[in-house]
Amino acid sequence: MTAASDPSLTGERVATPPPQVAPPPPHTPPAPHTPPAPPPHTAAPPSTPAAPPAQPLPSRQYASGEPPRHRVLRSVLIGLGVFFLVVAILVPLYVYPRVAVLPADPQQEQQLQATGAKILMPDANDPAGARVLENVDVTVTNYISKATDADGSGDDNVWDLATEISVPGHGMVNARVERISIDPRTAKLTNCCGDRLVADLDKPDGKPITHEGYIAWPFEVEKHSYPVWDINSLHAVTANYIGEAERDGIHTYMFKTEQPMQKVGTMDLPGGLFGSKEPNVTADAMYADTKVYYIEPASGNVIGVKDDITQQYVYNGTTLTAFEAKLESPSMRGDTLTQAKQAATMLPWMRGRVSIVLVLLGLAFFVAAFLIGRPRRAKHVAG
Description:
Keywords: Membrane, Transmembrane, Transmembrane helix. It comes from Cryptosporangium phraense. InterPro entries: PorA. It holds the Pfam family PorA. By secondary structure, this protein is an alpha+beta fold. It has two domains: 62-99 and 352-378; 100-332, no CATH class. It has helices at residues 7-10, 68-99, 334-373, and strands at 108-122, 130-146, 157-167, 171-182, 196-198, 207-208, 226-230, 235-247, 250-270, 280-295, 302-315, 318-328. Strand 10 (280-295) and strand 11 (302-315) form a beta hairpin. Helix 2 (68-99) packs antiparallel against helix 3. The longest helix has 40 residues, at 334-373.
């Protein structure tokens, strides 16, 4: 068997048959176009519509730059501030002067009491017509009221001050009525309306007197001396300020008057009182007194009194004690004490303290109004 030779080695060209070409497929007409079948129907999930893009909201600009409720609140605060300032002015200038006045008809009673006193008392059974009681209790009652039969002058008050001295078991020893005219605002004695002293029931018109100083203490008492009327000496004496003290739960100023033994007049008395055989003699009336007043300074109310008093008659070298006692007012109680405490509290506030508080409140309201109502930039508010 002879192997086939490699043309590449022999160099001889060997003819190769032409490539076979497949005949074209027979012509087939295109199939008609059929659309694809839709997928099986399924329920589509609900879809959330997309939010529209944010649009600028319509704006409302306040002409004043602040909401109406701020304007209302601001007006209210300013109104309150003005109100408190006006009241702060009116209270001390209008209200207080109409409250701090003495009553036209006080209807007030004050008692002074003493133990171990000595007093001259009429006694028809005694040959001398009177006798001295020793070591007895004494009550001095002062009652002040409106003088109904007096002719008033303008705004002055006219009072009757009735004083009665009594000894338990012996009755009334002495009595007198003093007519007083007084300025109700200043408490100064005016002597306008028939001031007089009635010490004898047989002489109801009494004798005219001219008052000096003070009988009722003024409002707003200060720490200095005051002239005080003394009915026994018939002139004013100086009451010197000596300090402060609590009495019956009320803060008081203390004032002291001192009168040494002095002649204050004369008195016709039975001669037998002095060992004289004459039926009546004219004796010198002697008087000494030391008195301490406890005064509530705002109202001038007398909270208490201590009175060391001595009255004597002297004739032909003989001294007869007519009255000797260490008197003191008892503690205040009941309505009298309540009213005194109310006046002590109320009057200082009306005079000035309440105005300070009202001014501070008024200013606070003004500051609050300024903070709320101060100018601001225009504010956009949803319409």
